Amino acid sequence: MPETASTTRAPDALLPALTPLLHEWLPRQRWFAGKGRRVTGFTLDAATELLPLDGAGPGLLHLLVRVEQPGRPAGTPADCYQLLLGVRTQLPPRLAPALIGRIRQGPLAGRAVYEGLRDPRLAGLLYERLRTPGRTGPLRFHATTPLPPALAPRVLDAEQSNSSLVFGDSFILKIFRRVSPGANPDLELPLALAGAGCARVPAPVAWFESGASTLGVLQPYLRDSRDGWRLALDALADGREFTTEARALGRATAEVHLALARALPTRRLAPSETELLAAAMDRRLHEAAQAVPALLPHVPGLRAVFAAASGGAAVQRIHGDLHLGQTLRGSDGGWAVIDFEGEPAKPLDERRSPQPTVRDVAGMLRSFDYAARTHRPWNADWAARCRAAYCTGYAEAAGVDPRADPALLRAYETDKAVYEVVYEARHRPDWLPVPMSAIERLSTS
Ligand SMILES: Nc1ncnc2c1ncn2[C@@H]1O[C@H](COP(=O)(O)OP(=O)(O)O)[C@@H](O)[C@H]1O
Ligand SMILES: O=P(O)(O)O[C@H]1O[C@H](CO)[C@@H](O[C@H]2O[C@H](CO)[C@@H](O)[C@H](O)[C@H]2O)[C@H](O)[C@H]1O
Fold first, then answer.
1. Which pathway does it serve (predicted)?
2. Biggest alpha carbon distance in the chain?
């Protein structure tokens, strides 16, 4: 592996200069997972100059920064985030919105620090680095295929848990923001699916990592596609059915599940282990009710739903956070599935553990409910027809109907709605009534 020139700065030398800027900026980012808890300090795991900071032109600093916050369970490390910071003496006006702040002390005093991904020159450099496998300091870059040079970058401005850049409408690079040790399932599963010949998922063409952590993945950009969430909302707005699309999506989901079962281990749980699934749902509910007290009156009803679920004996790797926004429909009408990272708030080990496939099905059923709920007037029958069509499509391709065990499906739907309550309370409080209405329905009917 060739090594390019790089400086891995002694982290302590940079941190005092950056700390005041990060304090102000980092907790405001959409992808910051520790919202609502005070930030008490930062430590740097790594600081790599992908372009020198003290040169005449812009510098690019890659950081893995740990954010200290109170309330962390004993023995667990502070959350680690990946930052790509641009550093310039003069910030051109077009980059003004990307400004994080100016360094006030040390040898770099006066320089502007800004979001490096928003600078086409720096984003282009990152792409060039991915094209040429090798190391830069602790960062390792890999590519599975030769990539075309010099593709123009643009930042995707979607509401995201991570950050993505599109290069020349040909490739999309996802930069993981919260980083954990271990392979990110958003690299691991698409690679396994590509190996199993599943064309429903764009195959990774390059990625980079540090130690055991995956930091970013480049994959083909499906430029003529639209995501399932937008398509469903358009159908609702136009008063159209979405059952043909939902049925095809059910088939696509089943194909992905079948390919994952071919590519990666599957197993049957012992009866004692199936009880643990309900116990885990109970535990998640308990934690969620502490975070969002509005859940408390519903706890007995929700626990009864979990207790009624007894199946789920077969487990395998699954998507883990399947919803309409994770699906793309091409101009040929075919569905692709993206974002195999799992639920961003869950620890990586949990996200990588084999699960019943019905969990993904339940996630998508919740999504049809979400779409119908965000539309005025609320059209519950529209959602019910989509849900039925999706399950029918799934059964056609998988040979197993997810409705065959209604208690299990309901338990997973409930578990997902509990997760959504916490997600919305943290990230989009205006949306909280959407999962809360499902909680009311599921805990009482
Ligand atoms: N291969 C792709 N082709 C086209 N658009 C994509 C592709 N991958 C992701 N996107 C777009 O980027 C958005 C965010 O991607 P996603 O993987 O869901 O990121 P996050 O984990 O940050 O939510 C998606 O909603 C989709 O619109
Ligand atoms: O796409 P992400 O991996 O960031 O997933 C998170 O954010 C989603 C919202 O962007 C959230 O999904 C919830 O809202 C969707 C509508 O915006 C809806 O279709 C989903 O059914 C609902 O769960 C997802 O839960 C969260 O993990």
1. Glycan biosynthesis; glycogen biosynthesis
2. 67
From the CA of 424, the nearest ligand is 2
248: phi then psi, degrees, rounded to nearest 5:
-65, -35
Cα-to-centroid distance, 323 and ligand 2 (Å): 6
Are the CB atoms for 246 and 364 separated by under 8 Å? no
Nearest-angstrom CA–CA distance, 282 and 289? 10
| Residue 86 contacts residue 50 (beta carbons within 8 Å) | no
- Spans of the chain below 50 pLDDT: 1-5
- In tens, the pLDDT along 276-309 reads 888 999 999 999 999 999 999 999 999 999 999 8
Strand-pairing partners, residue 46, are: 64
Helix axes 358-373 and 380-398, enclosed angle (nearest 10): 160
Kindly give, in sequence order, each residue whose CB lies less than 8 Å from that of residue 149, ignoring residues fewer than 6 positions away: 128, 131
Digit-coded pLDDT (tens) for 3-52? 444 555 555 578 899 999 999 999 999 899 888 889 999 999 999 999 99
Query: Is the distance from CB of 253 to CB of 261 less than 8 angstroms?
Result: no
Between CA 142 and CA 152, with CA 147 as vertex, the angle to 5 degrees is: 110
pTM: 0.93
Question: How many angstroms separate the CA atoms of 316 and 33, rounded?
Answer: 27
Instruction: Decide: 163 in ligand 1 pocket, CB within 6 A.
Output: no
- Using most ligand atoms within 8 A of CB, pick from 249, 323, 386 the residue to mutate for ligand 2: 323
Predicted ipTM of the assembly = 0.98
